[in-house]
Amino acid sequence: MNKEFAVQRSDFDEVMVPCYAPMAQMPIRGEGSYLWDAEEKEYIDFAGGIAVSCLGHCHPAMVSALQEQSQKLWHLSNVMTNEPALQLAKRLTQASFANKVFFSNSGAEANEAALKLARRCALERHGEDKSQIIAFHQGFHGRTFFTVTAGGQACYSDGFGPKPQAITHLAYDDLEALKALISEKTCAVIMEPLQGEGGVIQPSASFLAGVRTLCDQYNALLIFDEVQTGNGRTGTLYAYQSLGITPDILTTAKSLGGGFPIGAMLTTSAIADHMKVGTHGSTYGGNPLACAVACAVLDTINDPNVLNGVREREVWFREALADIQNDFAIFSDIRGQGLLLGAELIPKWQGRAKEILDAAAEEGVLLLMAGPNVLRFTPSLIIDRQTIEQGMQRLKTAIARVYDELETRRLA
Questions:
Q1: Angle, alpha carbons 208-149-257 (nearest 5°)
Q2: Which of 82, 154, 277, 278 is the most interior residue, by most CB within 10 Å?
Q3: Alpha carbon separation from 206 to 166, 174, 242, 333 (Å, rounded)
Q4: Pairing of strands 368-369, 100-104
């Protein structure tokens, strides 16, 4: 590397737009569930790039797929199609309810496409009065202006001027509130089957079934945002497959490419027909490199042994968190499904998730927050038990540090 462009973490503040506040640690290479920084300090990765690195870092199947495709074809644009895109679309439709796929570069773009499709479908089938979109508080659907408005967190959508209209937010897991609002003017309900950014919140089975029933009653499309829950994260390829209901549109991204940027919107032929030539598009959507890697990811994940292993690993994580709870009693709830888990802090510890996150990184284990009061775990789906135990021991050491500091301040 040219010495003029050698970098370190401190360069971030000089050259990057300040919309992020990255941690002090800056890994430079990874393998499996381990990362290393420039000083060769080792980190165990329980964050997975926010539920992205589903096979860990530099998985051989992904590396091989990328290397092979990089020698063939990088880009065509959607003036043409390409083999990897069609191969991936076939895999996705054969493994889900869907007949048709639209490829994008991210979850936000996949959700943007889903919301536009829902509006277009309602307009052509029922007329311009059917435009209302119902979403839920503490939801998260991306950072485009349309999707960030659909997300139920004002801290992400306020401050940018007038927002897209006809989007209404309700309390998550409150079926009576939905019954009171939904009407013939509703074109779509968008929701995560398990809220991730909002705190790892799992709704009741009756709520999910009720949402599906109401959408059918009022001819509204049900959009499942499976950007975070999809591709094996909850123990089935997509979360809806274990819930007994099927959405009309499903969005996926994050772990679909295992770290290579790609997103997809899945739907039925009847709904997809409302997106005619020219109504929507993406320069890089369906990129051959991204699709080749995603094919390798799906081929690896969509295997009964891997999916059953996710549920087994959930048990290992819950056991380790229960052990920490026995020592420190700092969690009020441990929740989630598969390897999307959240540990909520007790009232006395509210607002200290970031302190624990930073202390854990110093001890050599990386995890996430889901708001200021919840520790979130989204590791590789194939992380081994020894690594989990080692990482949890590091987390326990970090929590002990924060615990001692809090007790010292309390007694001072």
A1: 70
A2: 82
A3: 26, 10, 14, 21
A4: unpaired
Q: Tell how far CA 370 is from the center of its chain.
A: 12
Contact yes or no for 348/370 (Cβ under 8 A): no
- Residues paired with residue 35 on neighbouring β-strands, in sequence order: 30, 43
Residues in the chain: 412
Give Cβ neighbours of residue 359 (< 8 Å, ≥ 6 apart).
398, 399, 401, 402
- Which helix (DSSP H) or strand (DSSP E) does residue 332 occupy? strand 331-337
pTM listed for this prediction: 0.96
Q: CB–CB of 310/381 below 8 Å?
A: yes
pLDDT tens track for 225-279: 999 999 999 999 999 999 999 999 999 999 999 999 999 999 999 999 999 999 9
CA angle 27, 362, 5 (to 5 degrees): 30
Amino acid identity, position 201? I
Q: Measure the CA–CA gap between 123 and 166, rounded to whole angstroms.
A: 14
Q: Which residues 6+ apart lie within 8 Å of 387 measured at CB?
A: 32, 33, 34, 44
Three-state secondary structure readout of 103-152: EECCHHHHHHHHHHHHHHHHHHHHCCCCCEEEEEECCCCCCCHHHHHHCE
| Sequence-separated (6 or more) residues with CB below 8 Å from residue 92 | 98, 101, 264, 266, 298
Structure tokens belonging to residue 333: 């709830």
Tokens found for residue 401: 């540090």
Tokens representing 241 are: 């497959």
CB 378 within 8 A of CB 366: no
Per residue in 338-352, pLDDT (tens digit) is 999 999 999 999 999
